[in-house]
């Protein structure tokens, strides 16, 4: 019995010893390699777990700016300026300086009559400048706008005055002629591959010849009294409700667009402007709109709201909507930024280019009717002289880049205000026209320099 009892105990002891020995042996044998493998496996498991875990969403910097309030907006403004994103700031500052300087030199500069003249004389060339903005967004140029304006005025004059065609129909045909001319330019540029500079330079010469031929031996056709074209720049809404009503409509439309945009962005779970910012922006627009309405209506010499200014603003609003709120507008920016990338993205580049030149021709012909209204009729020289320079300068001075893909429709308004304010001020001071040319040229050069420096700064800051 004692032997039997001892035997299992001995076996159990031996088995336990063997187990401990094997375990120790395994530990000693596997520790250098297997421990490292186990550590690596544990690390991989931890990384996989971390990758599978939900990551915090990136915070939109615009949201941080808005949450910080006024300090956030000031900081963002400084960041944009340091990064070369100047926007319309140089133009606004320039307008303020121009107003101060000329008002100090001549107290009539900011009078109701003077400001009304600026508005009327700005309208025709400003409409043409809107067409140039479209072309510049493509990174191209249209040198034919002056002669196309002359052709548009000549077509209207020959049809309406010489042949007795209905005034409205003659105006529509004149504008349609500008569209056809623009399509021809766009076709040679987009389909044939002739550079836009060459095509429109040839157009400048060719359409000038057509204009002279259409005007005949006399070379001029006077605008009939009371005609539609004469009223383009000669008609004023004397009722004060017109100016104030337009200001109110503009403010309500602007506020409505901001609220609608904010609602759409919230529905898409995107950052949106807070109500305080919307109210502030609306207040600034309301202040400007009603001050202009007051100046046009109330002071001595006020003539009311000019029809020309209303039409110019209508063109600006429609063109701005097309550029910023439609897929067509986004395609224009895409082609202007990188035509090859736009083509690979499925955009019909040729169609965009032809249509843009058609828009430029249409607005050039429409603007030519305003010039005819101001000058008292269509002439064989209408659209020549400094017309082309002023139109292109307005778009560039207003902030549209010569390099394509960057700019705003409202650049046409800002640029024309700068140019016309300078001309109006110099006229009040009795300065010669050559001085006006030199100053306008200097302002244009300054605008291009600012644009070039801005692009270089943005590239250095990694924002292009």
Give a brief rundown of this model.
The chain is mainly α and 464 residues long. It is 77% helix and 2% strand. It is built from 18 helices and 4 strands.
Overview of the molecule:
The protein has 464 residues and is mainly α. It is 77% helix and 2% strand. The chain is built from 18 helices and four strands. The chain has helices at residues 2-52, 61-67, 70-82, 89-105, 112-137, 145-162, 167-192, 196-215, 228-234, 240-267, 275-297, 307-325, 327-337, 339-344, 349-375, 387-397, 411-428, 433-460; strands at residues 220-222, 236-237, 305-306, 377-379. It is globular, with a radius of gyration of 34 Å.
Range of helix content: over 70%
Backbone CA Rg = 34 Å
Q: Which strand order spans the largest sheet, edge to edge or round the barrel?
A: 1-4
Shape by Cα distribution: globular
> Main β-sheet, in a few words?
2 strands, antiparallel
Low-confidence segments, given as residue ranges, are: 1-37, 43-59
- With helices defined by DSSP (H or I, 4 residues minimum), what is the helix count? 18
Number of strands: 4
What order do the SSEs take from the amino end to the carboxyl end, as H and E? Answer: HHHHHHHHEHEHHEHHHHEHHH
Could you report the average pLDDT, rounded to the nearest whole number?
Answer: 82
Q: Quote the beta fraction.
A: under 5%
Distance between the termini: 97 Å
What class would the helix/strand composition place it in? mainly alpha
